[in-house]
UniProtKB/TrEMBL annotation:
It comes from Streptomyces caledonius. Residues 122-168 are annotated as: Disordered. Residues 128-168 have a biased composition (Low complexity). This is Glycosyltransferase family 2 protein. Residues 28-126 form the Glycosyltransferase 2-like domain. Belongs to the glycosyltransferase 2 family. It comes from the Bacteria.
Amino acid sequence: MSEDLWSLHAPVDAELAAPQALTGSVTLIIPTFNEAGNVGELLRRLGEALPDHLPCEVLFVDDSTDDTPAVIEKAAADHPFPVSVLHREVAVGGLGGAVVEGVKRADTDWIVVMDADLQHPPHLVPNSSARASARARTSSWPPATSVAAAGPGSPGATASPSPVVRPG
């Protein structure tokens, strides 16, 4: 299985840099561990950022020992997009395992993985996803399996959500 990463230092294609329309549906996978205090603000910001026409769902994969799952369930009722929570009693694989469980359950064209602590700005979700969609339409990218990732640990990176392409 190969993984390709978008380099933040790659030449910029002007067509891809411009805002594009996203084609397809999106699942936002949000791994959580004791993030009850961030859930409401995260969902509020996603509600402001996500266009009404975007078929999207939010899946929290939760390994918390606090009341985060209950907070998610209560907050979900206030949003126009589906919000669900998968609480894992045993956090097999930690953060990576949570992402894998979310990917297994997602049934959409696109997957975006983002942190619940707001270090990945929710307002970047539509453009990040649309740019990945545009790249997929205009080139032989993506290969059979690929991950588009950029995060605060990458040199020169801004913290942005990471669109993930489902295997073809």
